[in-house]
Design goal:
heterodimer, A: mainly alpha, two-stranded antiparallel sheet, B: alpha+beta, three-stranded antiparallel β-sheet, 1 helix, 3 strands, ATP synthase subunit a (chain A), transmembrane (chain A), ATP_synth_F0_asu_AS (chain A)
Chain lengths: 226, 90
């Protein structure tokens, strides 16, 4: 009856074979390639949403930054679809794994930083010291800004992991509480069930918001460096 | 702070017909001009020309000097010879 709390976060295995790779690749089959001038309704809606998101994300970028459009939109679609598929009962959500999120965050962040250092070395170095800093505070602020620079990918990864993991855990716990209260008090069960419903709606929103926040932050780092 | 309109005079790299304001930056006078900031706005002399927290060059040099200082401190502690103990164990 009390299912292991760690079960939803363990690597899924089928007949002894880990199928994590298959699960990571799965969302891509939900986005078929448009192969006609006027596509079917599903693809048309996906195209419309993709255009809306890419305009929102990339309009403020320079032409150099806009070369990252495909990368960033793919990232957003991948994280959003993975998070939404994770809302299915008894499914495995790859974005609850810190290893995967760090694997996405560090290369993207490093790419933006190296782009900035390669194309605008002076400006990238100068950004490590805020303008107008008093002289005696300069060494301390340089160290603080350097640390905050290196914290960025860690924060990106941990934010996504923590939000999705916490949401899934909460749903699991409140669901178990609802079941346990059914034999004790129907009124309390009803209240708990309403809370669970509201939480599920919130988790759907969080799934999309976290995907957008991850992509937006990467695009902001890119904007600072291009 | 002193303000004046500078019509058509191209001096000090401020450009054409821009509103100029002066503000005190320590003991130096810095010209604030509307538009994108450039290093030519600030007229530092001496060591402040290369190490300040206002111009891009100054900020870059401060950052590099800080990193070099940290590297020197780390190298010093790594490479310094271990002193012999005052009392030998018997």
């Amino acid at each position: 009856m009390n299912e292991n709390l760690f079960a939803p976060f363990m690597t899924p295995v089928m007949v002894g074979i880990p199928i994590t790779t298959l699960i990571i690749i799965l969302p891509s089959i939900l986005f078929p390639t448009p192969n006609r001038l006027i596509n079917n309704r599903t693809i048309s809606i996906q195209q419309w949403l993709t255009k809306l998101t890419s305009k929102q994300l990339m309009s403020a970028h320079s032409p150099k930054g806009q070369t990252w459009s495909l990368m960033l939109i793919s990232l957003f679609l991948f994280i959003a679809s993975t998070n939404l598929l994770g809302m299915l009962p008894h499914s495995f959500t790859p974005t609850t794994q810190l290893s995967m999120n760090v694997g996405m965050a560090i290369p993207l962040w490093a790419g933006t930083v190296f782009t900035g250092f390669r194309n605008k070395t002076k400006m990238s170095l100068a950004h490590l010291l805020p303008q107008g800093t008093p002289t005696f505070l300069i060494p301390m602020l340089v160290i603080i800004e350097t640390i905050s620079l290196f914290i960025q990918p860690v924060a990106l990864a941990v934010r996504l992991t923590a939000n999705i993991t916490a949401g899934h855990l909460l749903m699991h716990l409140i669901g178990e509480a609802t079941l346990a209260l059914m034999n004790i008090s129907l009124l309390t069960t009803l209240i708990t069930f309403i809370i669970l419903t509201l939480l599920t709606i919130l988790e759907f929103a969080v799934a999309l918001i976290q995907a957008y926040v991850f992509t937006l932050l990467v695009s902001l780092y890119l904007h600072d460096n291009t | 702070m002193m303000t004046h309109r500078d019509q058509g005079r191209d001096g000090g790299g401020t450009g054409r017909g821009q509103m100029c304001k002066f503000r005190a930056v320590g003991d130096q006078k810095a010209e604030i001009v509307a538009g994108p900031e450039t290093d030519t706005q600030f007229h530092f002399t001496g060591i402040k020309k290369y190490f300040n927290s206002y111009t891009l060059t100054g900020r870059m040099n401060c950052v590099l000097a800080t990193y070099r200082g940290i590297a020197w401190i780390v190298l010093y502690f790594k490479l310094r010879s271990k002193t012999t103990p005052a009392v030998k164990a018997t």
